[in-house]
Fold these 3 entries.
Entry 1:
Amino acid sequence: MSAHVVIIGAGYAGVMAAKRLLRTRSDITVSVVNPRPHFVQRIRLHQMIATGYDATVSFDSALPRTAHRVFGTVTDIDATVSRLTLDNGIVLDYDYLVYAVGSRQSPSTIVGAAEHGYSVAEFEDATRLESRLSTLDEKAAICVVGGGLTGIETAAELAEQRSNRITLVTGGIVAPDLSERARSAILRTLTDLGVDIVSESRVTRIDGSSCELAGGVRVKAECTILATEFGVPELARRSGLPVDDLGRLKLNDRLECPSHPNIVGAGDAVTVGENSLRMSCQAAIPLGVHAAETILHRLDGSAPHPVTPKFAGKCISLGRRYGVFQRTTRVDEATRMFIAGRAGAFVKERVCSSTTDWAVTPRRSLFYSWT
C-alpha cells in the first residue's frame, strides 16, 4: 500500500523518521516540512556562539534524495481531513503525519527579557547571539541565566574561549538532576574556568547593562543569555489535538495520537503515555525511528510495537578540554557512576559526533530504535 507521509520538522526526530521510511520502502512518498534549508546540530549551538563552529548540515547529506523538501512553517493541522496549511500558503494533504516540531525557549517572565535577552535555543537565536558577542570588548561582562545543562555548557564554553567576565545565575542549584559528585565536578571546573556562580537567586529584571536579582542586587552584564525552561510550539493545541499542560502532543505507547491514529509523533514536542521524556536528541533519535516503524506496521496491516525508553546518560561539555558524563538508569535517573575531566570531554565529543552520524549516515538509521 503506497502512502504520502508528511513530516513536520527536520530535527533529529524528523530526519530519522524520513530515513527509516524511505530506506525501508520504495512505494512511500515523504514530504519534510521545515522552516530552514538545513539540519541544525542543536547540541553544538553553544560551540557556534563561542567559536564560530558550523552547526549546520546540508539536507543533501541529512535527508534521502527522494524526500520532498517543503520550506515553511505549519500554521494549522486539520486532522479531520488530513491536511496542513503553511505560513506561505502551501497546503499539503497526508495519509500519515509525523509531528516532530521540536522545542524552543519558553517566553521569559523576566522584565526586559524580550528587549535585552539572548538565547541559544534555536539556530536563529544563536546567530543573533553570535552577532552580539562579536560587538563586545574583552572587558564586557556576560551573564548566563539558568543552571541546567544548556546554561552550564554555554557559560563554560564562553569562559574558555573569551576573556570576558562570565557569571552564571540560577534560581536553584547548578545541575540539579545530576548526582552530588558529578555536580561537584562541574562546579570545580566552572570555578577553574573563572565563572562566577550565583545560585539560589532569581533574576527579576534585565537591561542593557545588568541583571537585577530578587532582593535588588545587580549583576553587571552587557550581554544576558537566557538558558531557562524550554517549551514547545502551540501548533498541536491550536489545531485542536490533545496536548498536556506544556502543549506537547499526547501519544499512546505506539506514538500514535489517540484521537487521530494517522498522526504519530516524536521528539521534544510529544509526551508518550504517562512518560514525560527529557527533551534531548537521546530521545528524539530513537523516537523518530519508532514513529516511522509505527507507520510501516500500519501500512503492512500489523500491530505496532510499544516504545520502551532506554536512556543511558547525560553528557555535559565544559569547554573543549573538560566534560562530565553522568550515567543514568533506563528511565533517566542519575546513578553514582560518572566520568569527569578530560575523559568526560572525550565521551561527550564522541557522543556528539555519533549523534550527527546517526542523523546523516543512511545505513545507520536502519538500526537505531527503542524496541
Entry 2:
Amino acid sequence: MKYGSVERPHRVAVIGVGIIGASVGWNLSRHGAKVVFIDAGLPGEGVTNWSFSWVNASNKTVRRSYFDLNVAGMATYRELAATIGPNSWWYPSGHLRWADEPAAEAKFLKTAELLAGWDYRVEVYTGDEVRRRFEPALTMPGDVRVLFYPDEAWVHGRHLVSRLVGQAVAFGAELRTRTAVRGIGTGADGRTRTVALSDGSRLDVDTVVNAAGPSASHVAELIARHLPMRREPGVVTRLDCAQAPVHRPMHAPHVEIRPDGDASVVLHSREIDALIDTGPDPTELAQLLHDSARHVLPELDNARIAQTRVSNRPIPADGFPSVGALPSVPGYYEAVSHSGITLGPVIGRLLAAEILSGKRDEMLADFRPERFSP
C-alpha cells in the first residue's frame, strides 16, 4: 500500500510495544516514517504474552462493523504471514467449541447459524468425528455437537512482536525499553511536539501513538484526555508437558485450551476470571484451570504448572476499540483494543495509513476516539 509522498519522514513515538504497537510501528517504518518504540517493559512481554491469542471473528457478533473489522484482521494475518514468513508465530489450525449444557449448546448453534449467514465458514461435527479427525486425546461424549471454525488460528504473540520490531529496527526504527513516558508536550498550535521519558531524555516528535494497552488511560491523561477503560482482569496459566496433547485452540466446557509450542499448553476460563477478586491467589486459580482442563484432556494429569499471570485487559469502556486521531489534539492517535491479537495487524495497517496520508478509513468509523470526548 502506498500512502503518497511526504516532505520529510514523520517522526512517530509509539508508546507500548505489544502486538498493536508493534504492528503500527512496523507499518510506519516500512513506509519511511521515523519510529521510536517506547515500552515500560520489554516488547511483547505484557498482555500480548498473557493472552489466549486466538485469531477469530466467531466471538465478535455483537455489532456487524466489529465483526467485519475482525474478519479483516484475520485476512491481514494471512497477508502478514506471506510477507514476513509464518515461522514460529502463525498457526492457522482452526478452532473447536462445544458445551456440556443444552442451553449453552443452543446458543452456540444459533451463533453458528448467524455466522453462516454472514459467509463465515463453520462446520458441525460429533464428538466421535472430532476425536477421529482432529483431536484424538480429547474426552467428550460421542454424540455431542462440536463447532469447527476452519479459518481461525492462534498466534505466538511474543514471537510475532519480536519479528515485527526486528524488521522495523532494520528499517531505521529506534527501540527504548524499560522506559516509561512521563509527559507529552504540545506546541502553540496544540500539536504534539515532544515526549518526555523516565530516563530524563526528551524526544522531538510529530506524532504520538498511544498503544499502551492497560496503561492507555494514564498515557491519555498526559494530554488531559479522559479515556474510560473497563477493569476486567483475566488469569492465564501455562502448563509444561512432555508433548502438547492438542493441535488447535478450543473452547471446551468451562475452560479454554490451546497449544503453546510442542511441549506447552495455555489455559484460560471466564469462569475462573470471575473468581479473581473473591480471594484465591494466582496459584489457586492456576490449579482450578488445570483441574478443569484435565477433565477433557486426561493427558494433562502429569503436566506441570509453569507460569501464571493475572493481567488487566485493555478494554475501552464500551467494549470496542479506540483507534485513530483525536481531532482536539493534532498528532495524537489511539490504538487501544481488547482482542489485540486478532486486531493488531489490521489496526496497524489502517492507522499507519491514516497517519501518513491523513485519510480516515471507513472501517474504523464506529471506533473513533472522539466518541469518548466530553
Entry 3:
Amino acid sequence: MSTTGTPPSSAVPQRAGTLVSNDGPVSDHGLTAAAEALAVEIRIREAPLAGLPPRAARSTEEQRLAAGIHRACRGLRASFLRAHAAAVYDRLTDGRTVRLGLTALAEAAAEAFPGLVPTRAQLAAELRHVQAEKEGREIDQGIFFREILRLPEAGGHLVDVLRDPTPQARALLPDFRATGRAELGKVTVERRGDAGHVTFHNESCLNAEDNELIAQLDIAVDLVLLDDSIRVGVLRGGPVPHPRYQGRRIFSAGINLAELHHGRISFTGFLLQRELGYISKMYRGLSTEGRPDTFPAHGVEKPWVAAVDTFAIGGGAQLLLVMDQVIAAADSYLSLPAAQEGIVPGAANFRLGRLTGARTARQLVLGGRKIWAGEPAARLLVDEVVDPKAMDRAVDEAVARLAAPAVLANRRMLRLSEEPVDAFRSYMAEFALAQAERLYGEDVLDKVGRFTAGGTVR
C-alpha cells in the first residue's frame, strides 16, 4: 500500500512483539516506556517557554533562557533517537509496510511520540512569524530525519518511499495521456513527440523556488516518467515580465529569499522534499516498490535535458548536476551562492566535485564563483553552448539523441557507478540537520532580511 503524503489515522499502527532498535531488539513495552519518559521530560523542560514573550520581544536574558531550553531538549531527542530510531520508524510505518511521505511521517511521529517533533499546531504557530522570530522547531524535525536517514534499512526505505508517484499525478495521468498537456499553476507539462517538456512559470520572482513550485514539480516529473509515450524529459524556465529581463526565458533564480524571510519555506515540504522527491526521481526514476499494477512495467526511469536560459542560480544550478545533457545559451551563467546566503546548497556539495574537481567545487560553493557559459570551466557542467536563438533546435536535437534505445540501459549503469543510493542516503542524513540549523543562523536571518528589504528575489 502506498500512502505517500497522507497521514495515517489517529491510531498509529503498533506491531505486537519485538521491534528492532538501533542497538538490537527492544520490546514494544521498552520503546513505549522510553517514549513516555521523553514526553514527560520535554514537557517539564519546555514549560517555562509558555511564560516568555514572543521571540522578537524577549530580553537578552530571556533569549538565553529559551536557547538553553531548546538546546537541552534537543539533546534529549537526539539521545532517544540514537537508541530507538529504527523502532520508532518501524512503529510509525507498521514494519515498513505503510509508505509515508516526509510531512506525514513527521505528523505521525508528533502524535505517536509526544515531544519528539513539533506538532501540527506548533508548526502552524511558527508560520505566524517571520523566520527570525520563530522558535526554530524545524530543527527538531532535522534531528528526527537525520537519525532516520542514518539507518540503512529505515533510511533506505524512506528514500525509496519518496520516489513513489504522487497521488495528484496518478489522478492527472489519464487526462495527460489523452491530451499531452497539464497546467499545474506555476509549472506546465507538455508532450511534444518523444519529449515531456516541464516549464517553470514562477514569473513574479524570476522562476525562483517556493513551496508551491516544489510540490508542482513533483507532480510534473511524475507525469513525464509515467507517460509511456515520453522517452526524454526536458526542464526549462519560461519567460518573465521583470523589467530587466522583459520577455526573456530564465532557468531558475534558486530559493525565493523573500519567502524564506517571511518564514514560508517549509523544511519538510521544500528543503528535504526537493532533494528526496522530484530531483531524486529525475536522477533515479520512480520507485518500483508499492507500485499499483496499472503503472507501466517500463519507463520508470528516463533521461533528462536541461535548457539554461539567462542564468541558473542556486537551486537552479543544483538541478544541472543530475541532468543527462545540459544546453546553455551563450549569454547565460550559473552560480551556487549558498555560502553567501548561509545555507547548504542541497546535494550540490555531494555531487559537484565529481563533475568539476575539488578546487572548482570549493570556488563555487565556498567562494560564490559565477561561471559564464563561454568560460572553459563551464564545460565541466554544460554539454553544449549555443546562440540563444538556437536553443529550441539544440533541445530538439538533444532529445533525438537521448531517445535512442540503448540510452536508458547505459544511463542506469552510469548512475549506479556514480552515486550509490546508500551514499546519497548518508549525505542526506547529515544535510537534514545541517540545513535545519542553518535556517536559523544569524547570518542567514540578516541576509534574507536585508535582501527582502531591497525588494528583490536574488
